[in-house]
Amino acid sequence: MKLSPLQKFRYQYVPKLPGMLRNGIAEICVKEGAETSSVRDQEKIKALFPNTYGKKEIIFQKGENTSAAKKQVVGVILSGGPAPGGHNVISGLYDALKASNKENILLGFKGGPSGLTNDNCVILDDATIDAYRNTGGFDIIGSGRTKLETEEQFKIAAEVCKKRGVTAIVIIGGDDSNTNAAVLAEYFAANNTGVQVIGCPKTIDGDLKNEDIECSFGFDTATKTYSELIGNIQRDANSGKKYWHFIKVMGRSASHVALECALECQPNICLISEEVAEKKMSLSQIANYIADSVCARAERGMNFGVAIIPEGVVEFVPEFSVLIQEINELLAGSKADKFNELPSWKDKYEFIEKGLTNESMAVFAILPEAIQQQLFLERDPHGNVQVSLIESEKLFSALVKDVLAERKKNGTFNGKFGALHHFLGYEGRCAFPSNFDADYCYSLGYNAFMLIQYGYTGYLSKVSNLSKPAEEWVAGGMPITKMMNIERRHGHDKPVIRKALVELDGKPFKYFQANRDTWAVETAYTFPGAIQYYGPAEVCDLTTRTLALEKE
Amino acid sequence: MKLSPLQKFRYQYVPKLPGMLRNGIAEICVKEGAETSSVRDQEKIKALFPNTYGKKEIIFQKGENTSAAKKQVVGVILSGGPAPGGHNVISGLYDALKASNKENILLGFKGGPSGLTNDNCVILDDATIDAYRNTGGFDIIGSGRTKLETEEQFKIAAEVCKKRGVTAIVIIGGDDSNTNAAVLAEYFAANNTGVQVIGCPKTIDGDLKNEDIECSFGFDTATKTYSELIGNIQRDANSGKKYWHFIKVMGRSASHVALECALECQPNICLISEEVAEKKMSLSQIANYIADSVCARAERGMNFGVAIIPEGVVEFVPEFSVLIQEINELLAGSKADKFNELPSWKDKYEFIEKGLTNESMAVFAILPEAIQQQLFLERDPHGNVQVSLIESEKLFSALVKDVLAERKKNGTFNGKFGALHHFLGYEGRCAFPSNFDADYCYSLGYNAFMLIQYGYTGYLSKVSNLSKPAEEWVAGGMPITKMMNIERRHGHDKPVIRKALVELDGKPFKYFQANRDTWAVETAYTFPGAIQYYGPAEVCDLTTRTLALEKE
C-alpha cells in the first residue's frame, strides 16, 4: 500500500484526551449525577424502556478505578454515511480496551449493522489499528445502512454476541442509529444477555445535537472541507467576475452544514431550510430573494456571486412538498406503468396536467423541464420521487434566470447573469479528520470503553466543553433515552432521538441574519483555505463558528 | 474585510527565491547563453519576428548589476482563467521593482488584457500588495479573456503606454496569451515604442510546458486540490462500497491534470485523451475498457470504484469529433432556426437522423438522451456545440451502464453498478498557492522585473530546476519565439507556442501505464489529503509527481 506523505505523518499524531482521562485507566473513576428523564413524553418512553430509562448522567474524574475486573470482548459497528474521525473513535476504544487488559478483544463488525446480524466480523489488532489512526473514511471495517430495529434482528444479534462472547457493542452512528442502539440496549437488558450497548454521535449533517451533545463528530472536518472549496469558488467568482455559482451542500433535512459554511465564507446568499419552512416561502419568493441580490450587485457592476443551497431545502417549501405528495399519489402502484408507457414527454406532461391539482400544476409549470423530468424519471423502488436527487442548485438558478428575464423586460435589471452549479458532499465525508475531530473522536472512543468498563448500557459517549482546549473537555455518558421523544413515523408512534434542526432564535442563525443583507450586496467573502493539521493553533485547532457562537 | 486565520498567517509567509536572486538587486548580473531558434518553422517565424527572433537565452547569477539606471513604470496583466499563485507573481514583481528604485511604479491593468486597451488601471501600492501576498485568485486586479492580437489593439496599447509612461508590460497567461505577448513585443519593437513585454507561464492545465518551461504555475496547487478531493471520494467509495464515482477534472484538451491526479491517487480508471486519440478509440471501446474494471472488481466482491475523466476527452474520440463537426454544419446559420422551431424532441430527433451520416447517427444513437440534448440545446454564439459543457462524466457512466446490462444478459457480469458524478474545476483554480507555487510564482515575478531592468523584451520569465529545493533553482529568461511553431488556426497559418499534450512515451504516462492494470482491479487508493502549508517538508514542500518523474 502506497501512503501519501500526509498519511505517513498523520500516523504520528497523538490525539489529545480530555484532562480527566489523561492519568491512565487505573486513575479514572465515575461521578454519578442526577437521574434523568426524557426531553418529552416521559411516561411513554419510560414504559418502552423499563430497564434502561431514567439512569443517571455520569462524568469521569481522576480517582481510583473501581470497576469490576472482567475480560471484555467489544464489538464495534460503523453505521450510515461516513464522517471524518470514525477511525479515531475505534482507535481510542482500542487503546483504552488494551490499556485496561491486554487480553481484551475488539471485534469489528463489517459493512455496518448487518455485520452483526450476519456475524461478519474481524478481530482488530495493533497492525490494523495503526494503519488507520487519524485517517478519514470508514474503510477499516466498512459501513452500511441496515437498521437494527426488529425483534428478529435483536434475537440474532444476541445469539451472535453469545457465540462470540461479546460483552458490549459500540454503535457509531447518527440519530436513527443511536435510537436503535437504545432499543437494542433495552432488549439486551430485558433479556439478561449481559451485553451492553454504547452509542457514539456521528454525522457530518450536524443534526445530532442537543443540550447534552454539543456536536456530532465529522461536522467540523466536513464543513471545513466544503468551506475550503466554497472559499476557492468565491475567489474564482471574484477573479473572473462573470458567474454566479449555485452550490448545493449536503446535510439532509437540516441546514447546519450550509449555515456553518456561510459563517465561514460569507457568501452572497445562503438559504436556510428551517427559515423557508417557518416563513412558508414559495419557490417564487425564494427566486425573487436571490434575484434581489443579483440585481443589487449588478447595479454595483458585480455580475457575479455565490449562493449556498442546503440539500434538503425543496422539501421545506410547502407548495413543493405538496407537489411531491401529489406526484407520489399520481404514480402509486400500477398507475406508474400507464405513465411510463406514454410515448413522449408531451404525452406525459398532459397526463401530469390532468392528474395534479391546479395549485400544484402551477408550481410544476414554473419548474425547468430538466427538473420536471427528474421528478418523474428518477423514483425510488416504492415509486416515490427521490427528493435528494433533485438538482436544486440548478432549479433555483433556473428560476432566478426567469425572474431576471422578467425584470430585464421591466427595465429593473440591466446586468448579466451566467450560472455555474456545484454539489459538495462526498468530497468532505472522508477527509483526514481535523485536529479537533481527531481529538474529539479518539476521546469518544476512549470514553466509550470507560462506560463499558463501568457497566453502563444504553448510554451515549459524551464529551463536552468542546469550545475549550481538550485539556478542559468533560468526559462522561448520558442515557440515550434522555434525548428521546415520541414522533410519528410511517404511521406509528416511535421513540426517537429528536433531530436537531437549525434554531432560528439560536446565536449562529442570529449572527448570519444580522450580516446577510450586507453580504448579499457587497463582496465580503472570506477564504478559509484547506484544513491545516500543523502550524499555529489558531490555524489548525479551532472548531466551528457554529459551536463558538453557541458557546459565546 | 474579515480574514480567515489561514489568510492572516499566510501573509507572514516569506516566499523562497532561487539562490542566485537572494543577494539583492545590486548583486544580480546576466549571463547570456547561445542565440536561439524556434522549435520548428524557423524561417517563417524569423520572418514574422524580425526584431525579436533569435535572441539569446539568459540566466541570472551573482555579480554586479550592470543594468542602466532608468525609472520603470511596469504594467501587469492577468489573462484567462485564474491559477493559484498569480498574486505572488505580482508581489514578486512589485518587490523587485521597489527594491530597485522606490520611484518605480507598478500599474495593474484591470479585468485582463482589455484593461490595457481600455486604459483601465490602478497603481499598486504596499497596502494593496500586502493584502494579496500568498493568497489564491486573480482578484487583486481581476482577469479576462480578451485576446490582444490585432494591429488596432496594439496601436491603442502603444498609445496607452505612452500616455501612462509605461516602460514594460508583464503578461501573466497561458500559451495563447504568451503567444500574443510575443507578437505585442515585436510590434512595440518594430514601432520603436521602447515598451518591453515579458510573459509569465500560467495555467492549471499544465499544457504550457516544453524543454524550457518545466511547468506552468498553478498546476501544482490545482492538482493537489483535486487530488485531495479524489482521495476523499476514493475513501468514501471504499467505506460504503456501493458506488462508482465518475470524476471529470478540468484541463482543457490536455490530460496533464487527470494524469497527475491519477499518479497521486491511484484510482481504478483514468482516461488519457492523448491515448484515446493515438489509439483512435471509439466510445464503445472506452466504455468496454471501463466496464472491464467494473466486472473484474465485482468478481472480487467490490462493486465500487473511481474513474477520472479528463475534461477534453470526447474531442479526442475520432467518431465523436466527426459527429460534432456534422452537427455544427447541420445547424450552421439559418438552419438552426428551422431546427429550433420544431415542436418536440421527437421531431428534432428525426431532423437530426436525416441530417447526419449513417456513421455519425450510429454514434449519436448510443448517447444517453440527456447528452443528445446537450449537444443541441447548448451551443455557443456561433451555433457550435459547446464541447466543454458536455457532461462526459455522465456520458461514460451511462455507456458503461449499457455495456454492463448487456454483460448481465450474457452472464458475464453479476455485480451491481451505481454511479455518482463529479466535476472538479473551479474548486481548485483559486486555492491558496502551495508553498511550491507561492515560491515559484514569487520568483517568476521577481525574475520578470530583472528581465525588464536588463532591457529584454519578448521573453518568458523562466525559473527551472524546479524538482530541487528553491536554493538550487535557476532564474533567467527565454525568447518566446524559441517555443513557437506554425499551426493552422481558423484557416490561417499562425505562429504559436506549441501546446504541450501528454507524451505517451514520457515517464509520467509510462509509470501510469505500468501500474494501471493493477489499480483497475485492486483497491490501491492513495489519499493525499488537503494541501499543507506548515509542517514537515515532505508534507508541505513537494511538487507534483509529474515533475518528479520527468526529472528522474
Explain how this protein is built:
Two copies of one chain form a homodimer. The first copy, chain A, is α/β, with parallel strands linked by helices and 552 residues long. The first copy, chain A, is built from 22 helices and 15 strands. In chain A, strands 1-2-13-12-7-6-3-4-5 form a nine-stranded mixed sheet, sandwiched between helices. In chain A, α7 links the parallel β6 and β7.
Provide the descriptors you would attach to this structure in a database record.
globular; 15 strands; 552 residues; homodimer; 9-stranded mixed sheet
* Largest interface, counted by CB within 8 Å of the partner chain's CB: A-B, 66 and 66 residues
State the end-to-end distance of chain A.
45 Å
Kindly state the percentage of residues in helix of chain A.
Answer: 40-55%
Structural class of chain A: alpha/beta
List the helices and strands and how they pair.
2 copies of one chain form a homodimer.
Chain A: H1 5-11, E1 28-35, H2 42-48, E2 56-62, E3 73-78, H3 86-100, E4 105-109, H4 114-117, E5 121-123, H5 126-130, H6 151-164, E6 168-173, H7 175-190, E7 196-201, H8 219-240, E8 244-249, H9 256-265, E9 269-270, H10 273-278, H11 283-299, E10 305-310, H12 313-316, H13 318-330, H14 335-341, H15 345-355, H16 358-366, H17 369-377, H18 392-410, E11 419-424, H19 435-453, E12 459-464, E13 474-479, E14 484-489, E15 492-497, H20 507-521, H21 537-540, H22 545-550
Parallel strand pairs in A: 3-4, 3-6, 6-7, 7-12, 8-10, 8-11, 9-10
Antiparallel strand pairs in A: 1-2, 2-13, 4-5, 12-13, 14-15
